[in-house]
Amino acid sequence: MAADFAPASASSGIGRSELVRLTAAKGVTNTGWRWLPFFLPTLALAFDSSTAVLALLLGVAEAGGIATLVAGRWLDAGRERSVIMVALGTVIAGSLVALQGTIWSFAVAAVLLGAGSAFVAVGGHAWISARVPFDRRARFIGVYEMSWASALLVGAPIVAVVITWFGWRGPFIAVAIAGLVAVVGVATIADRATTGGPPPVPQVRGRRVKLTGDAWLIIAISAAIAMAGLTTIAVAGTWLDEALGVSTGGVGLVAMSFGVAELTASSSSSIFADRRGKRFTMQVAAVAVLAGLAIMSSAGSSLLVGAIGLLLFFLGFEYAIVTSFSLVSEAMVEARGHVLGVNTAVGTVARGSGVAAAGILYERFGIAGPAALSAIGAGLGLVLLTVLARRRPDLA
Which residue has the higher pLDDT, 104 or 37? Predict the structure, then answer.
């Protein structure tokens, strides 16, 4: 598989160094955003609030991703690098704003961090999709999305240690510094598409584009899966702390273990999605999500049962969401950036709705509340994937 990412590859405009820098930049933004829900109990004390209120603010902050609606024209004009660098600047700004320690500064920081993460994601997907053929694209996007797992595998344990040593402000400062390094890394990427590799696929430029019904169908699939995942993830840290008795340090270790699971799922998408079929393997992953949610809901106070359910849930969600990006990127090749931007915006609304409801559902029904909403999202995604199989058999 290493040959697939070799710098001299003749079938791709992206070499190993470029992919590593893009992935590292996304890892910074993912960590800046993802560590928050896992440490809500700690942050609730720091910002003199409750986990329910902070979860609600994180849900509202997800709305920052709606701004990706304006990114389509820039991306289709080949300005992926600019989009990514501006987004990194937003993450840096959000981390610095949070240092003020008020509930309002948390709200503003959350919006900036959420928006920055969304723009880096859509910018990277556009960069890769314009330069890598569809039959190999899941390999590259799978590697790029390993950064999502690294936010738990690497970022969460570091955050736990930093909080223990330096207090709650430490992670925000660390993310800001890492963001500056990432900006430099992206700025120095050599665009292989203009230095010997194949040119990006021509895009529609300078005019509004109407999405097709099939494009909306694929966007709905990705959004349903996103809601299924983020709804339960938003309260996972609180559930581990309150129901299963896991300490702050323990939450960091648990998050790291599930980062391993997510990394496994992302790498599996990179390896198997192109070979076994993107759509079919997503259906299998959606079933895994439903099974994991059922186990979590029946865990009671058993850490072992809860961990097994959360593990299966994470594996299924990560595989399905990562693989869905490849389908979205091929929904309308002539306006790929526009479709990716709309997909991120719609996914933002779906995720935000789930996250905003998660805290309320958890306080009233325990983990069964957000798990039920996640199950609805996963079930809807499963049904829509079946519809897609009939409408677009070419997107296997």
Answer: 104
Place of tokens 């005019």: 207
Rounded CA-CA distance 341/351 in Å is: 15
Cα angle, residue 222 at apex, residues 368 and 317 outer, rounded to 5° = 45
Q: What is the mean pLDDT of residues 306-335?
A: 88
Burial 245-281 (b: 16+ CB within 10 A, else e): ebebeebbebbbbbbebbbbbbbbbbebbbeebbbeb
Token pair 């809860």 is found at 306
* CA dist list (Å): 277 to 125, 145, 283, 395: 19, 18, 10, 8
Write down the pTM of the prediction. Answer: 0.79
Judge whether 95 and 176 are in contact, CB under 8 Å: yes
Q: Helix 336-365 crosses helix 103-129 at what angle (to 10 degrees)? A: 140
Q: Identify which of 227, 245, 242 has the alpha carbon closest to the alpha carbon of residue 367.
A: 242
Min mean pLDDT across 215-219, 252-256, 353-357 is at 252-256
**Helix-then-strand count for the chain, H and E:** 18, 0
pLDDT in tens, 235-293: 887 787 776 766 666 666 666 676 777 788 778 887 888 888 889 999 999 999 999 99
Could you tell me which of 276, 231, 266 has the C-alpha nearest to residue 381? 231
Dmax over CA atoms of the chain, in Å, equals: 59
